[in-house]
Amino acid sequence: MATILAISGSLRAKSFNTMLLHAAVAATPAGTTIEVGSIKGIPLYDGDVEAASGLPPAVVALKDRVVAAEGVLLVSPEYNNGIPGVFKNTIDWLSRPATDIARVFGDRPFGVIGATPGRGGTAMAQAGWLPVLRTLGALHYSSGRLQVAGAGKVFDANGALVDDTVRGLLETYMRGFSEFVSKHRRGR
Known about the structure:
This protein is α/β, with parallel strands linked by helices and 188 residues long. Helices cover 44% and strands 15% of the residues.
């Protein structure tokens, strides 16, 4: 089917979103490959640094992985009803230089899921990603949503997904997103 790069938007070792990412890998349908990317090591965006030395190695490495993937799954926390700064910072770096936006994002399928210990799921963060992805020319998967609320009860102490309802929703999402990525592969 497809190759998808999944990226957790949290730096925490015991992040619910990293747990959700690993559950998504397990829920991926046969024929689809998920590779795991990371935002660790991505510095704060600084145009002066970019002008003086170009893109940092961690940015280049992640950017190359995005370009090699047929689709990208953002597993996004929600901080204060919005997108986490460290995750948005990563996307800002990946959009540099501006002449690369079409190569990295243009018509590439992107999906967004997320988990939070709160009751509201990650609806606000997911809505916050829409204008960003639209501006970059990405194809947003909108046929399914996965906003995990009460994440402290959904994962066990070892990070395993223990909620059967969420597991079913995740399997449905991953099946739909995998089909979307396969349908919209570049060069088809």
